[in-house]
Amino acid sequence: MSHGTTSHWTIGHGRGLESSDRDKYPLSYAIHKMNNAICKGLRLPMRSLANLRRAKAISTSKVHNETILVKNNEEFVNKVMNNDKPVIVNFHAEWCEPCKILTPKLKELIEPLDNLDLAIVDVEENADLVHTFEVKAVPAVIAVKNGLIVDKFIGLVDADMITNLIDKMSGKKTNS
After folding, report:
1. Which CDD domains does the record cross-reference, listed alphabetically (predicted)?
2. pLDDT tens for residues 40-65?
3. Which member of 34, 49, 96, 110 is catalytic?
4. Both 78 and 164 in a single domain?
5. CA neighbor of 101 nearest in space, from 112, 113, 111, 90
6. How many domains does the chain have?
7. Distances, alpha carbon 39 to alpha carbons 34, 35, 48, 137, in Å
8. Contact in structure between 71 and 56 (CB atoms under 8 Å)
9. CA distances from 115 to 85, 88, 132 (A)
10. Which of 65, 122, 136, 171 could crosslink 47 through cysteines, CB 3.0-4.6 Å?
């Protein structure tokens, strides 16, 4: 580093970025805040799928909340990381049988809520996001609040775990 004001950090698989690269790598810069929080306490290991391609999202209907159509990294930063409401992010694939169960269940539980959004990311079409979040298995769900990952799960989990996560993110009290 030639200047004393330039900080250095790594994203994903150890690739170094400088703070002066903020405009060139906006997603990595935004993720930097999350990685710091994870390293300082949450330790939420992300997973990543190999051999993936370009970015795309699936469309869903809007009832009370917003189902976020993540088409690229910039949209992810704008609509998930910078969202005023908490967001449940569902990384899934069309070929994934457990995803075909989880995705409709998440929609059913989140759509009636006005204080929680759902983002659905097709891993086959969002290689950059998959790499950034090191998604190795689907379905993978992360919960983002105030630009930070606050919870996650991988795979098809029981209904109580899904409901508890949604209640926690939407501010509902749970009976546990």
Report:
1. TRX_family (cd02947)
2. 433 333 332 322 223 333 333 444 57
3. 96
4. yes
5. 90
6. 2
7. 9, 6, 18, 21
8. yes
9. 6, 11, 26
10. 136
pTM for the full predicted model: 0.65
Q: Does residue 115 lie within any of the structural domains?
A: yes
Our answer to whether residue 99 is catalytic in this structure is: yes
Cα 23 from Cα 20, distance rounded (Å): 8
One domain for residues 36 and 87: no
Assess if residue 59 is contained within a domain.
no
Both 12 and 95 in one domain: the answer is no
Residues paired with 10 in a beta bridge: 16
Residue 60 lies in a domain: no
96 annotated active-site: yes
Closest CA to 103 of 87, 115, 91: 91
Classified as helix, coil or strand, 99 is helix
- Asked whether residue 53 is assigned to any structural domain, the reply reads no
What gap in Å lies between CA 82 and CA 145, rounded to an integer? 9
Cα dist from 65 to 14, 62, 109, 119, 147, whole Å: 36, 6, 11, 11, 18
Range of the domain at 15: 8-42
pLDDT in tens, 97-144: 999 999 999 999 999 999 999 999 999 999 999 999 989 999 999 999
Do 162 and 93 belong to one domain? yes
Contact residues for 157 (Cβ-Cβ < 8 A; gap 6+): none
